[in-house]
């Protein structure tokens, strides 16, 4: 074994150890995050691609840790999922988001849809559907304005269990969105099998619409396939007018992205809504 080889192994181990320790630190802090009032929600608007009318908002979780500072969801959500902390976090998100939007719906003329991300770990809990039911009753939020975003990763679970839960949610009047479409393992056939109302095309495809012919064609085909199945399409991460032009030309229904709106704090919702024409 060469000297440099040894050093590399040593370096690699230190790095692994560091990242393991970081994960443990994040995990420990995350367990206290709700109690310590470190979590908050922001809401990103979704607009009709053609009329620019407001459709609704996606709820996004933010964590400002006293010990670690702001930690991005891309970092802490996977740890929350692996440790099961996501079950409590996810319930907190649903509770707070529905409380906030119950008030918004009471006071504003427009009634935006409230979209909430649901982790597969949360979704597979037997208590998931009853928990949603309970929060709906507790908050008085109208289920017809609630949309749950699940990812293709639910498909790794038993199809029967997934279908049962999704049909229960549908029977309650809740909308189902399939999130991050195209990044997971699911085949197109899931679009037909699952009772989906909305399909969200992932930002990675939207990013490459203009440069790459393949993803350009792919986004166009996904939109027409979804429409054939009676599913609405939301394009995520739309940042440029060129992307918007293309999506409009292909009949994409809704746009979510920094071009038309960054996530807002809950306190900013009324101001944005007061500027919306009534639908
Ligand atoms: P996601 O569900 O795909 O959410 C969309 C992400 O794209 C958000 O990142 C949003 O801020 C970002 N985004 C939207 N438009 C643009 C754009 O035009 N440009 C760019 N650069 N980014 C844009 P965020 O808030 O950092 O969330 C990352 C991921 O963390 C989410 O991806 C979702 O998977 C997860 N996440 C966030 N909140 C929750 C939650 O409450 N529960 C669960 N289970 N997951 C969550
Ligand atoms: Ca989402
Ligand atoms: Ca997404
Ligand atoms: Ca994503």
In summary, what is this structure?
This protein is of the alpha/beta class and 279 residues long.
Averaged pLDDT:
91
Radius of gyration: 20 Å
Instruction: Please indicate the percent range of residues in DSSP E strands (runs of 2 or more).
Output: 15-25%
Name the structural class: alpha/beta
Q: Describe the main β-sheet briefly.
A: 8 strands, mixed, barrel
Oligomer: single chain
Distance between the ends: 72 Å
Uncertain residue segments: none
User: Which series of helices and strands comes N to C?
Assistant: HEEEHHEHHEHEHEHHEHEEH
The best one-word shape is globular
Largest beta sheet: strand ordering: 1-2-4-5-6-7-8-9
Q: Roughly how much helix do the residues carry, as a percent range?
A: 40-55%
Number of helices: 11
List of distinct ligands in this structure: ligand C2E, calcium ion
Secondary structure topology:
Blueprint: H1 3-33, E1 39-48, E2 54-65, E3 69-71, H2 73-83, H3 86-107, E4 113-117, H4 120-123, H5 128-139, E5 146-151, H6 159-171, E6 175-181, H7 189-193, E7 198-201, H8 203-207, H9 213-228, E8 232-236, H10 241-249, E9 254-256, E10 264-265, H11 269-274
Parallel strand pairs: 2-4, 4-5, 5-6, 6-7, 7-8, 8-9
Antiparallel strand pairs: 1-2, 1-9, 1-10, 2-3
Bound molecules: ligand C2E and calcium ion (CA) (3 copies).
One calcium ion binds next to loops.
Fold and architecture overview:
The structure is a single chain. This protein has 279 residues and is of the alpha/beta class. 48% of the residues lie in helices and 20% in strands. The protein contains 11 helices and 10 strands. Helix 3 (86-107) runs parallel beside helix 5. The model has no long low-confidence stretch (mean pLDDT 91). The chain binds ligand C2E and calcium ion (3 copies). One calcium ion (CA) is lined by residues 179-180, 200, 202, 236. One calcium ion (CA) binds next to loops.
